[in-house]
Amino acid sequence: MQPPSARQVRIAAAFAIVPMVVAAGVVLTNPDAMAIMSRGPLQVGHEAVNCESCHAASPGTIRQQVQAKVHFAVGMRQTPADFGYGAVTSNACLACHERPNERHPIFRFREPRFQGAVNQIEATSCLGCHSEHTTHRATTDLVFCQACHEDLRLTSDPLDVSHDALIDEGAWQSCLGCHDFHGNHPHKAPVLLDAAVPAEVVAAYLRDGPSPYALPKLYEAEEDGR
Length: 226
Known about the structure:
By secondary structure, the protein is mainly alpha-helical. It has two domains: 6-73, no CATH class; 99-225, no CATH class. It has helices at residues 6-29, 34-37, 62-73, 90-97, 115-118, 146-149, 163-169, 175-178, 199-207.
């Protein structure tokens, strides 16, 4: 049996590759096919959110996007270009979740005094704690408050067990039992440590459990940024 000629190999390769390229182009550019590319389920509370709410289509046609990538690769363009859809940024989160009562706005952590904390936790971005397609509300642990508050000292401490004692013990997992990080619940910090929400309940909430804080929220998320 004669081995295939080089021309036959090229033709066979074209028949194999072209459909794959066409299919990839459809998936990358057709909003109805975006779910196929999803890396996992949406986090709790985001079940009704559309892909396009977070994933903005890249500017230009497919040809222009490919051309821009080639130009960047060979040094003819200074900035990279996205293909299909751009990377998700905090702006997508804030389009729905920005509110005037935010206790820890991400812009605050861009101040130089927080540089040490930012080296420990990426607080300048919503994505530092929240990551989609994991089902979890937050992907951080319960001790992240230490990054900013390790040197906390209160002149008038309302808690029956002093904050100094809790800090000395390294009991950072207790912080969210008293304090609502984003401040969007009608929640008042207790003055008795025994009245705090147990750490395991808070941890369950950060995964996908029910809220241990008072409801309703002070501000509900705006649907699709409206």
